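Support reply, case 0932

Customer input (verbatim):
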Amino acid sequence: MLEATNDEVDLNEAVVLYLSRYPASNRAEFDSRFGPAAAAVMEWVRSVLNEAMRVEPDWDRMTLNDAGEYVEAVMRERHPSLTPQALEAIGNYYTFQTR
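Our regenerated output:
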């Protein structure tokens, strides 16, 4: 599995690019940017997004916006090399999926 600090690929950029037009597809631009590594990079991005979707906010105490911020905080703790931009994209993805 790739790590966010991979020397060959900017995985933070991958998260942001993958989600930049979400829910529309950005596949052609993603594939063009990452070339032969695109499939492995996409697998890593999807695994991070799947991990984020398994975070369980306290819905009795949190609004949807609070939950998105909570997911960002949890993912920051689990993946300290993720940038604020990547974390924000993940949080937005979570809230879009959950709404």
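We compared this against your earlier run and they match. Two observations from our side: Helices lie at 11-19, 27-34, 38-53, 64-78, 84-98. The mean pLDDT is 93. Please reopen the case if you see a mismatch on your end.
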